[in-house]
Amino acid sequence: MRKSGAPSLLISLFVLCGVLLSACGGSTPSTNTNGGGSTTAPKSVTLVTDIGGLNDQSFNQSANVGYMKAQGELKFRRQVIESKSQNDYVSNLTRAAQTSDMVIGVGFLMATAMDQVAKANPTKSFALIDSCATDAKGNCDSLKNVAPLFFKEQQAGCLAGVVAGQMEKLGKAKSSKLLGNNTIAAIGGLAIPPVDHYIAGYQYCAKKVDPAVTVKVNYSQSFDNTAKCQDIANNQISTAKADVIFQVAGGCGVGALQAAKAKGVYSIGVDSDQSHVNDSVIASAIKRVDQAVYLTVKDFEAGKFSATPAPFDLTNDGVGLAGLSATVPAEVKPVVDKYIADIKSGAITVPDAVQK
């Protein structure tokens, strides 16, 4: 019995050694910090708003929703910088680039600032909603580190125009608040491409549905002065007898929705579902800024950054119509659905230039 003790002891030692080696030198479970099964920490991403701010109930707020969704899933460090004036764009984008791996700029107005900062920081990645990075002459620079996120807003504007035009066509018997002048209106913030695309689609499809309708268009020259849009809407309603006010002016446009409520007419929101603002809002022409931001950040974290992303439109749910109110006659929705189908199939091509 004593002869077998040494081999047994050796075997026990080998087993113990194997356990220890396995524990110390074997593979350890990976910690999935960024959704990709990798131990690599997520890259940092900063969102820089335009002058409308995070509480515009529209464009910037929607961008932040997408950003927060991505941040919640991927666990990168959160940093949001709000621009108070256009003079802040270069400094805010520069600060963001210095402290993060990717910078998302919200809005067409920072296109030139984005161009300047992206060129100065070629190792950092950028995305710009509604525009390419542009030089001082307004020409697009095809920079390898900037992803322009474009939308076909004219398609969403078209659907808003279908709602307004069909209500005018059906008349007061179906929509009791109509003032009887067969007129609708739109208020833009500034005459920049994303705003004009919405208005162009609104004009085109409202007249396509009801050729006799008049479409009044005004600009507030602001995206944040609520009083300006309220004053313009009041004039459109009182002077032109506009029945439907389509706001395309961000936070300023909330004033237009308030004017519609006060004057007892209808209104249409923009960028996100604005039916929560008040019950004058019968629909909202939306573009999924939240989805664009979310997908762009997710692709970046997965190493799939692209400087040539596909535009967001009806075919990929990048734009659309939301919040169709019970106030809208039942006969309107089938017409909206027909236009959606025709746009997707290519039977209707919606123009993006405002008719003067």
UniProtKB/TrEMBL annotation:
Protein's UniProt keywords contain Methyltransferase: no
Gene3D superfamilies: 3.40.50.2300
Localization annotation: Cell membrane
Protein's organism: Dictyobacter vulcani
Pfam family, one: Bmp
Primary localization: membrane
Taxonomic lineage from the root: Bacteria, Bacillati, Chloroflexota, Ktedonobacteria, Ktedonobacterales
One GO cellular component term noted in the UniProt record for this chain: plasma membrane
Keywords from the UniProt entry: Cell membrane, Lipoprotein, Membrane, Signal
Domain ABC transporter substrate-binding protein PnrA-like per the UniProt entry, residue ranges: 45-351
Signal peptide: 1-22
PROSITE patterns assigned to the protein according to its UniProt record, in alphabetical order: PROKAR_LIPOPROTEIN
InterPro entries recorded: BMP_lipoprotein (IPR050957), PnrA-like (IPR003760)
Source superkingdom: Bacteria
Name of the protein: BMP family ABC transporter substrate-binding protein
